[in-house]
Amino acid sequence: MLFKLDERIEATSDLIYELPLCQVRLSIDSRYFWLILVPKLDGETEVHELSEADQVRLIKESSKVATALNTVVNPEKINVANLGNVVSQLHWHVVARFINDEAWPGPIWGVGNAKEWDTKKRAEFIDSFLNELTKL
């Protein structure tokens, strides 16, 4: 089967980079530096469904993304989450959290309303993030 991105992920994020296993997507909600990793596999909903090699790849890719994000925005915490209750397609959220963010210290889901990125700030973040990511 060919990889098909869930329409809800597509509607709420933008593709900014392709790693060997995962798409790296940026959430359209500018309140958080929120990246979504989506393995380019079709049908899998759980990590344990992946081959051992892809499980290792997913961990390594999420670690690279978290490391680059940490370097660029220097948050208090990097949260990595794999929920899938609303969107079953396997995907991991990598979110930089700050003490002064809108949802701190709770989860970001269901808090307030999404805010669109300023075009210039979005481009600057993507450039900085990708510069760090491609060094790793």
Question: Can you give a write-up of this model?
Answer:
By secondary structure, this protein is an alpha+beta fold. The protein has a single domain, classed as HIT-like (HIT family, subunit A, 2-Layer Sandwich). 32% of the residues lie in helices and 22% in strands. The protein has three helices and five strands, in the order αβββαββα. It has helices at residues 7-12, 52-73, 119-133; strands at 13-18, 22-27, 33-39, 77-81, 92-97. The protein has a five-stranded antiparallel beta sheet with strand order 1-2-3-5-4. Helix 2 packs across helix 3 (119-133). The longest helix is centred in the middle third of the chain and has 22 residues, at 52-73. The radius of gyration is 14 Å and the shape is globular. The mean pLDDT is 96.
Number of helices: 3
Structure summary, number of beta strands = 5
User: What top-tier CATH class fits best?
Assistant: Alpha Beta
Distance between the termini: 31 Å
Average of the residue pLDDT scores:
96
CATH architecture: 2-Layer Sandwich
Structurally, the number of domains stands at: 1
The proportion of residues in beta strands is 15-25%
At CATH level 3, the topology is HIT family, subunit A
Helix content: 25-40%
Cα-based radius of gyration, to the nearest Å: 14 Å
SS-based class = alpha+beta
Q: What is the N-to-C succession of helices and strands?
A: HEEEHEEH
CATH superfamily: HIT-like
Shape, please? Answer: globular
Strand order of the largest sheet: 1-2-3-5-4
Largest sheet: 5 strands, antiparallel
Low-confidence stretches: none
